[in-house]
Amino acid sequence: MQKIIYIAGFRQHAGKTFTSLGIISRLREVYSPNEIGYIKPVGQELFTLPDGRKIDKDAIIIKEYALPSLNLDTVSPVRLGRGVTKSYLESQDQELLTKEYCRSIDEAISKLKDKKIIIAEGTGHPGVGGIVNLSNSDVSIRLNSDIIYLAGGGIGKTLDMLEVDLNYFHSKGARVKGIIFNKLIPNKIDDMKKHITEEYITKRFSKDGSPIHILGWMPEVKGLNKPSMRLIKKSFQNAIIAGDSDETQWNRPVTGVTIISQSYKKVNPQENVKAGSVIILSSNSLRRLKKILVYTKSQAPQDRIAGFIFTCTKKQESFPKSLKLVTNYKVPAIYVREDTSTADEILYKCIKNTKLQSHETKKSDQIIKAFKENFDLEKFKNSFLG
């Protein structure tokens, strides 16, 4: 019989794509890639293919790193892009729209009938999609799937999440059979294991006494949720790029943001410039720029900045000089039209909403390694595939 595993999480960016990729990498130890399917039944963040088709961004990641033969025609049957919710609420026949969405999901699953196991990746927090009657619980029930729920770190906070979300799933009739605790601080894991046990979770949250299995304790993967300059540049429209954004240094994880507003004489790179940070600087600050570049060149490669964001860029006299400087020093730089405050706000949103990108091979390798070391494959096989 075909088995469908549904990946749900406590919120957006809980690590559902991370988990889908990791579990598929372990499933390849049990099945051939051609026997493994993937679907994102309801998607929100869409990517436009060259032929105009729109699919969920996460499907690109799975195809790139886990299932190269993935058929993109089947992976994204329902796409809840901007404006869909409003259109649904204003519709005179909401029931018909929901039926059409459900039919799209059913048709996509029927195209995967040759797969022995399918990973169905959820979207957002458990209730996302509920307005169109396609919440994560609704979809998991429609697929007759077992759920692996992703929880966060901590003890009290995590148990509060489980209290709300697991009871929500159970009240709808969805089956949560496994939990993965994700993005954990390594030195906190033992304490969590001591207090949050399978026995406790099953006793408190299982409605019929069926065991809820703990399948993994995933430490936070360093740099995984950090954007690169290559990703950051996509957040700015009409920006000018210094250098080649396909070069390696553009893929370095950004660890922080520093705004340089001091005068040239007061700028002290040893105090103001941090390793891995992005420096926001006015585009006409030639002397301050050179001072920072000279300092960062003196540092070891791992201690250098990740790049510059130059604000209020105009074709002024200093522009070609600063462009030549950063290019010669081979430091990633983006010249933007926004002022410093706006640029900082855009950067904050980018950092907050960072997802794995299709070009980030190193990060995908880290995910696969994390699941190799921290995911209990035998328990998963016995409880989900047995």
From TrEMBL:
Task: Spell out where the chain crosses the membrane.
Answer: none
Q: Which InterPro entries match?
A: P-loop_NTPase (IPR027417)
Which Pfam families does this chain map to? AAA_26
Keyword vocabulary terms for this entry: Glutamine amidotransferase
Name the record gives this protein: DRTGG domain-containing protein
Q: Whose protein is this, by species?
A: Thiospirochaeta perfilievii
